[in-house]
Amino acid sequence: MTANTAPVLLDLAPLDAAHFARIEDKVAALMRTRESVVAMQGEALLPLEACIRSAVRPGSTALNIITGPYGETFGDWLRSCGAEVVTVTAPFSGAVMPEQVADALRARPEIDFVSLVHAEAATGNTNPVAEIGAVVREHGALLMLDAVASVGAEPLLTDEWGVDLCVIGGQKAMAGPAGVSAVSVSARAWDRIAANEQAPRRSYLSLLDWKERWIDGGRKALPHAPAQLEMLALEQAVDRIEAAGLDTVIARHRAAAAATRAGVRALGALSPYVVRDVDAAPAATTLRASDGLDAREVVAAALAADPAVPLQAAGGALAAEMIRVNHYGTAADRAVVLDSLSALGAGLRALDGQPRPVGDVEDALKAAGAAWDAVIGG
Ligand SMILES: *Cc1c(COP(=O)(O)O)cnc(C)c1O
Questions:
Q1: 363 alpha carbon to ligand 1 midpoint, in Å?
Q2: Where are the domain boundaries for CATH 3.90.1150.10 in the chain?
């Protein structure tokens, strides 16, 4: 081993309780909440499952709003907790409308839990949480929000929107680690969880353990050894956003989505999968391959032209028709967006039997650059 491979990630001073609490407080500020925030020692699916298993029990009626693949997972967890699940679905090409939620709540007054994904990185749509939150608050149900793909990419106003359980992760627009996550828990949510005999206790999925063993004791002693490296990385991610300015980071993501959509419209052959600009998630832009194009082949050809661009084909049933352009991390950048469009243009041209004309790549880059500059100021 040479000197420049010194193991700098090892032999650090232990992460103490005060530092751990300080990181939680920084995350709370980023989430715009004054409620409890628990840093969970695992990827964001851990707090998402923990919220559902803690707040839902047999006899619960849950409204699960499905606008992408994560919502389907929530439905499975809700049913496995014994809840009756009412489902509202929006096409992946758009958002759920607050009126749909209001109608569902009116039809089933016994609904006591609502699960919603803010932005879907997988399908590229985002939902109007402020309006939906107001509807849910009026009804009185608890609102759980998956904000993993929205935090850092678009405004997230946890308390103002009446979100009772808000889950974030570090690995998307925060450009941080994937191995820790965080959840905010409102006072009403704690009451519901404490009254739920089925809520996990003495379990990795337990929110109550953190309340009783960490929060209620004034956050003086950690219940177990923390994921130190991931926690330090999370702190650096939050600090970097604060240093740049949250509004600036959000604007970069908005600009990336706007530029990609404008560029693709000019390029032709592909189209934005999410139809209306307001429903498009700033964290990732999805594109529709149609008229005989296969998304997987377009992505492979584009990556052959430039392996560095953040393109991927969607998973599962959408694999043939959906292309995803990621904007988070270092990808929320003007040059990366333009390179992605260049690669798509080159890939489309390289495909055999191209069924539709591809526009001029230079025109696409011009349209994308102008759209970026309209958001950021060129
Ligand atoms: C990325 C993401 C998560 C975290 O899941 P991974 O598949 O592990 O990245 C959860 N919810 C949403 C909406 C996400 O976009």
A1: 34
A2: 246-376
Q: 200, 49 in Cβ contact below 8 A?
A: no
Whether the CA torsion 247, 137, 89, 276 is positive or negative: it is: negative
Q: Is 226 helix (H, G, I), strand (E, B) or coil?
A: coil
CATH level 3 topology of 12-243: Aspartate Aminotransferase; domain 2 (3.40.640)
49 lines ligand 1 (CB under 6 A): no
172 CB near ligand 1 (under 6 Å): yes
Distance from Cα 376 to the centre of ligand 1, integer Å: 27
* Cβ(147) – ligand 1 distance below 6 Å: no
Output the CA 119–ligand 1 centroid distance in Å.
10
Residue-wise pLDDT tens digits, 122-138: 999 999 999 999 999 99
Cα–Cα separations (whole angstroms), residue 14 to 5, 225, 226: 22, 9, 9
Question: Which class is 246-376 in CATH?
Answer: alpha beta
Atom in ligand 1 nearest the alpha carbon of residue 44? 4
Dump pLDDT digits (tens) for 211-252.
Answer: 999 999 999 999 999 999 999 999 999 999 999 999 999 999
DSSP for 242-257, please give it.
Answer: HHH-HHHHHHHHHHHH
Query: Which atom of ligand 1 lies closest to the CA of 147?
Result: 13
**Per-residue DSSP letters for 323-361?**
EEEE-SGGGSSHHHHHHHHHHHHHHHHHSTT--S----H
Q: Tell me the whole-structure pTM to 2 decimals.
A: 0.96
Kindly tell me if the per-residue pLDDT of 291 is higher than 90. no
Q: Is 310 in the pocket of ligand 1 (CB under 6 A)?
A: no
